[in-house]
């Protein structure tokens, strides 16, 4: 039988962090910034959860995006913290909703309205490629799907990329037609 022992920790005062070992840059494979649901449990929320409760829950846990599911666990869409903001809730109230009765399914981005990365293409991309696409579409987050299996494989987050690159990554939401029209009137 082999003999193993423990050692004194008196000379250890530093913590190892993944970013100390990763030499991440724009040419790194995109897979290093991909949150894979085969490794990490997806963050989900029930569609019937109160929108106010969801906002508080997401703020407390520092989560900016959750996948919305129905009572059977089927994917319906996503809800971002920005979708639950006061301004978004005010828009719904103006449309006749009662603020206290708003649910996540009233505020979410529906599955059929989402744009996603294909997992097979992501395997060929670099971090710079991913950032270019996120900027082009104005997305802070983007789901990654395995189309052949009809399943969501994971998610890409611009803020995760920024943190790993140790730099500011600016993603601007493209203006809506109404915003462009209004700005042209003021010229």
Automatic annotation (TrEMBL):
Keyword set, alphabetical order = CBS domain
Sequence ranges assigned to domain CBS in this UniProt record = 38-96, 108-171
Q: Which SUPFAM superfamilies match?
A: CBS-domain pair
What name has this protein been given in UniProt? Answer: CBS domain-containing protein
